[in-house]
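Reopening: structure tokens for the biliverdine IX alpha complex, inputs below.
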Amino acid sequence: DAVDYQRALAQCASEPIQYAAAIQPSGYLLSCSAPDWVVRHASANCSELFGQPARELCGLGLGKLLDDAMIDAVARAAADSGVGQRPVTACAGNLGPRAEIFEFAVHREDNLVHIEIEPQGMRARLGANELSQQMIARLVNVDDDDQFHRCVAEQVRLVTGFDRVMVYRFLHDDAGDVIAESRVGEIDPYLGLRFPASDIPPQARALYLRNRIRVISDVDYRPVPLVPATLPNGRPIDLSQHALRSVSPVHLAYLRNMGVAASMSISIVVDGRLWGLIACHHRTARVVPPAVRGAADLFGMFVSMRIAARELQRTMTYEDLAGASRDHLESRLVHARMPSLALTTELNLLQHAVPSEGVAMLRNGEWSSTGRVPTRAGLDDVMTWLRRIGAAGVVSTADIAEWHGQRDRRSDDGLAGVLALPLDTECGDWLLFFRREQLEDVRWAGRPDEPFQIDASGLKVGPRTSFGTWRETMVGHARPWSTTDLRLAERLRLMLKHRCTARDTGPSIGTL
Ligand code: BLA
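Re-run output (same inputs, fresh job):
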């Protein structure tokens, strides 16, 4: 029920994923103090590279493990990397009993210099810059948004070789849709499916804003513990920016349930917000060499910037149109003898100043309206809702259940969204903008009413086991009011306050 549901969500949100105290076995970690370059922590598997147990590596000078050229490169990279920043690739060099080539990624955190050491990878003949240049070059001339997203998925699949690459976009409620996909023929398409918000808990979304790329090479890996696992003050080591960070067991189970053996995801960040992810799946284990990861990271930044530019362009056009109606309305009011009365005949301009399907105005207990508005009973419902929530400024909802008298009632006049703007709170005068109900045929990946499972003890939350398509027709919702809509409403409110109240109450100067 609802309480269990909330408790389960809280449990998912409370897992401290950046303090995993372990890494994935596709690489090694040495963490040193600086400037003395003494090893303070090592991943347990470092014994494979250096022939001594990790415990014995701690306390050694780094010079005992790496040659001078490597240490110089690491020191330079550490100087370039600020605290809390992504790893900087330092250099490659031969290490270990077979003198293989490894790559070093370096960053600072917790007063330590962290050196992640990974095999360079056989197939990485091109460096990160060349690879990302190729990927970006194939996108610059793609103008259409849908085609752009498709090309993004194709380019990432081409360069990484994952079986399925998706562009996954978050919705206003943190659920998300697969809006583009490139995949091998033999696996199920995910294109068009919706996933619930609980699949990616809030602390993970917050981390993915700061750390833009994640790879899980093999969901069946055995985590490699760090030695020692905690800092001298007893606190866990912050692995937020470690490429090798061991990931949440809940999420590993999720991927296994999906039939996925390896995954990668790249953040798409727009306007400081996680807009979406480029999500990649593979049916077998798959290592992504550092150069390919670097290319994917750069590519993700390009994709983010291009999407941000598009969104800004669209918002500006939308605001310009609405602003033109607001300006038009303002000039009418300036020239009217009684601006507040004139408002009644200018409702159509109001409707375009906050793009909506209809406007109703309540002044001195009288309703006037234009476009599509609810029946009188519906308008009364809105006023009851405003009183109930104690609305004093602009408020809005896209969910009919919030304002309609009877819960679960389908909209009888086809309207679901309302934005309310106070004209005069003392007199109870309001402007109400309406948006129609949008019936949406949603295809969920798994039952949306069972987004996870709780084990027999009732204590442990796990991922759902079935991702089979589940259809649902969403009723009672309008297109959500955006922050742009709210901004437009607020600007309209200020203009009306300035143009109507001031002159109506004082002696009318404009009547001469
Ligand atoms: C992480 N969940 C993630 C990640 C994705 C998803 C992409 C990021 C890690 C990665 O790159 O693999 C979910 N994967 C998806 C979705 C699609 C996809 C939506 O391919 C759609 C195409 N997960 C649950 C439940 C919990 C949970 C019930 O289902 C909590 C109890 C948790 N998911 C969870 C956690 C992480 C995660 C904790 C973070 C993993 C980590 O970074 O350590």
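The pocket of biliverdine IX alpha is lined by residues 12, 15, 17, 166, 168, 176, 178, 190, 195, 198-201, 204, 214, 216, 247-248, 250-251, 254, 263, 265, 277, 279, 452, 461, 463 (CB under 6 Å). The domain at 2-311 is CATH 3.30.450.40 (Beta-Lactamase). Marking as resolved unless the reporter disagrees.
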